């Protein structure tokens, strides 16, 4: 069975949740004998990426091909290529994608990108099977911060998928049961498949030393520096409440710059916590395991929102895989897998005091916290193991490829 994947960023280089999700599934399918080819329509994100990955390369049998050779490594370049240059690249990308799809009878899997959707949906007389994945509701852009253009593009993307693209699909992979229920309400839906969050447990078997700027003991948050999605503002306030009881403990915030980052930095300064609450920026995928494996606590103060209801945080799976205790909010489908004070420490979402209390509880009872962390790891091995989930995905793709007819 052959699978061709069209994607914006190289999952072997990206440290994002999306990149990690792609990589677990790609590696899992490859290990099961699926011939996987990845076509990267975006640009190189850094000089290092271009040096490390040639235009055409192969990693453990997985073939990668970059459509573009430019290096886009600043926020202004990113904006230019996203909002302006992408329109000029459309014709060239369409020609290249058509060439790859012509006569192809395997499975085509596209990232959730409007340009990709339009190109693939317009392909005449397709012989391939088309699948997609959703890990959150498409209308969450209405509630997230962003400029008018971003929100407009989000609306266009949602409308195109729901009115045109979904009916082109042979299969739709969904991360949560809430998404299954949502798309079941559509007319003429493709074959739906529930595939929970996945994690590569092997990445966390060895506890390497973290980068030298991470001084133990510390609490670590890895995710989006966004209040609406991940509740970073709540985390800052909660840590401030307990910090005086733990004078040697630091809080490290790991993630790329976001619209909320300036307000976080201002608030940290107001609290006089600049020496103990530190925004560390983004780190490579290879360094994340050492950062979170050496943390005393791992935290995810996600608010209760539509995004939380439809999605499931990939970082939570990585947290659990370390065997370290995790403090999180009881939102979405997280409580379907984890139990308070058994495999995780739950706090009421949206409450600074509640999150501060669970932080203190975990820190005051280190023996119990260790047991909770190990139980959480067992849950990750049982429900989120990439090897187990990849086998389920493989059987779904077999059904699409050999049996399911639209």
Automatic annotation (TrEMBL):
Organism: Mesonia algae
Domain Glycosyl transferase family: 208-377
CDD domains reported for this sequence: GT4_PimA-like (cd03801)
Entry protein name: Glycosyltransferase involved in cell wall biosynthesis
Name of one Pfam family that matches: Glycos_transf_1
GO molecular function, one term: transferase activity
SUPFAM superfamilies: UDP-Glycosyltransferase/glycogen phosphorylase
Keywords for the protein's UniProt record, in alphabetical order: Transferase
């Amino acid at each position: 069975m052959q699978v061709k994947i069209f994607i914006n960023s190289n999952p072997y280089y990206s440290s994002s949740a999306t990149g990690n999700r792609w990589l677990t599934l790609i590696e899992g399918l490859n290990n099961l004998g699926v011939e996987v080819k990845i076509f990267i329509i975006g640009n190189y994100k850094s000089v290092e990426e271009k040096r490390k990955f040639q235009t055409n390369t192969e990693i453990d049998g997985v073939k990668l091909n970059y459509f573009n050779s430019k290096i886009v490594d600043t926020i202004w370049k990113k904006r230019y290529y996203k909002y302006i240059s992408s329109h000029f690249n459309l014709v060239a990308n369409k020609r290249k994608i058509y060439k790859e799809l012509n006569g192809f009878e395997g499975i085509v899997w596209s990232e959730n990108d409007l340009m990709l959707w339009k190109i693939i949906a317009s392909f005449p007389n397709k012989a391939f099977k088309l699948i997609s994945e959703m890990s959150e509701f498409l209308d969450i852009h209405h509630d997230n911060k962003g400029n008018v253009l971003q929100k407009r593009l989000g609306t266009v993307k949602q409308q195109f998928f729901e009115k045109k693209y979904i009916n082109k699909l042979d299969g739709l992979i969904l991360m949560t049961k809430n998404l299954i229920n949502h798309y079941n309400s559509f007319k003429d839906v493709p074959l739906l498949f529930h595939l929970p969050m996945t994690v590569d447990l092997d990445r966390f078997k060895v506890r390497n030393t973290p980068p030298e700027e991470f001084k133990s003991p510390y609490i670590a948050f890895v995710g989006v520096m966004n209040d609406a999605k991940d509740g970073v503002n709540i985390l800052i306030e909660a840590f401030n409440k307990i910090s005086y009881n733990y004078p040697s403990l630091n809080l490290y915030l790991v993630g790329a710059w976001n619209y909320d980052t300036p307000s976080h930095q201002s608030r940290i300064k107001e609290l006089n916590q600049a020496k103990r609450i530190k925004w560390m920026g983004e780190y490579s995928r290879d360094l994340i395991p050492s950062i979170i494996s050496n943390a005393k606590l791992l935290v995810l103060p996600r608010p209760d929102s539509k995004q939380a209801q439809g999605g499931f945080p990939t970082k939570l799976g990585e947290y659990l895989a370390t065997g370290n205790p995790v403090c999180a909010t009881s939102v979405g489908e997280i409580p379907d897998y984890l139990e308070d004070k058994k495999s995780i420490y739950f706090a009421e979402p949206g409450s600074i005091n509640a999150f501060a209390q669970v932080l203190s509880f975990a820190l005051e009872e280190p023996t119990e916290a260790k047991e909770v962390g190990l139980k959480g790891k067992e849950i990750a091995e049982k429900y989120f193991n990439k090897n187990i989930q990849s086998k389920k995905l493989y059987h779904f793709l077999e059904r699409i490829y050999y049996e399911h007819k639209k």
